[in-house]
Amino acid sequence: LKYFGSSVVPEQKLYWPVFFESIMLTRCLRRFHRTTNTSVSHQLKESPVRFLCQPIRTRYAPSPTGFMHLGGLRTALYNYLIAKKSGGSFVLRIEDTDQARLVKESMQDIIDTLNWAGIKYDEGPDISGPYPPYKQSDRLDIYKQHVDQLLESGDAYKCFCSEERLQALKASYSKKGFSGSFYDRYCLNLAPEKVQKNLDEGKPYVIRHKVPKGITIVNDGLKGEIEFKNAFIPDQVIMKSDGYPTYHLANVVDDHLMEITHVIRGDEWLPSSPKHNLLYASFGWEPPTWVHLPLLLSPEGQKLSKRHGDISIRSYINKKYLPESVVNYLAMLGWGPVDSNKEIFTMEELLKEFGTEGLNPSSSRIDQDKLDWLNGVHIKKLIDSNPAKYVSSLRTALEEHIDQYNKEIWDPKVLEDEYLRSVGKNIQDRYDFFHSLVEKYWYIFFKIDYNPEVYNTELFQSAATICNNLKQELVGKQEISEDEAAQILKTVHKTIKPVKKGPMMKQIRYILTSENQGLELPKVISMLPTSEIIARIESFEHIINN
Q1: What pTM value is reported for the model?
Q2: Which residue in the list 223, 275, 306, 523 is annotated as catalytic?
């Protein structure tokens, strides 16, 4: 009853059967997790009712200092899936406190990329929500109030140390073999008169968080319980001299006020977790569930960075990757279903099957070939799941090819929906992009040209007879199926013996496509209108006759 009456579960109506079921479930879960090393057991111990009743709220909180890359989109995707699978909320928050590194177009790129990927946030800078604003530069008054609270409680203090002193301190620690950031607490015990004198003289200052003695335990949902010695955690700056909070303070304050229950982020933030836990403790708040994802690595095993243009999402969009394939690929980079080897997922399937139990604690390397293959798989899925998108994308690829290479289509009907749908249903060979399909099988879209060096060979000595006999078999026929086309080719072969079938098929392929390899001939004949096939035969006849 005290839990339901507390502020942990505000405005929660008491329903007795659910209340007692919750108590029993809590006991069962505690017993089950007693021997495990997860953050679940920690939450059950600290706040069982909140664990059972509070809906999951996750957030993606990028800094707009560059264009979104694969690692950032994967983090957003995992947060989205975990929240939505449980019926919770997914929040977009822009952490723009590092004003010196802001990139003007970055915030819009973040929003556009999430929309492109189908990751729909419930609250954000452009969507109203219960905890506005969702841009940290608009929340400075909130941070100041909380810093003042820490100053008043003695958990923070003003530091007037100059940059020169701090650099000298860093150099002295470095000589002793210490790396990283350390502070000797010079300003912690300044007399009140000295502090006031510095303020009166207008000396710039930052505000540091006072780290207590002891150890800090971080309960990570993927790595378990991790212990950090506070002696190695410096008194971090939580408010800069320009009045802007540092990432650490703003992050903790916002996550608490926005009621974020789960923080899923990259491994690079794990060293910051004890700092965040200490801030939560100073405020008297309960930390969220931490899940630190293993890093994405380049094919060479190096850490990916959003400054690498080749892995920015914008570059993948420009290369015409489908959002479905990128989402599928990123979901599998660090996660897999626990009870199957399934690799192909739509967003709807991920929402049903994704869970933290399938997360892999090891880093994953980018495999471009795997992504290309997935893109081809999802292109073919569009033929049935979203034929309008398939047709539109293929038409766009065709139009770009026409503009780039000044190609001429054999008939305006090539750009019509019906013909483009038939292309999708008939071509089942592997192609990873729409432009690859156009380039590989260009002859079913564009007028063809012949190379004299190819047909002025012994192979084409019987070409005139083949053209004449094939044309006779086609005259009067309208639509031809693949089976009918195969029978026509058999009939033509019977009429031109002793020419062997292999050489005959090579000649017909070249006559109809001006290529030496490609789609099966019956498929080519069934896809192209009879009038176009006859026109190509007559065009070739005209060349060899002259």
Answers
A1: 0.85
A2: 306
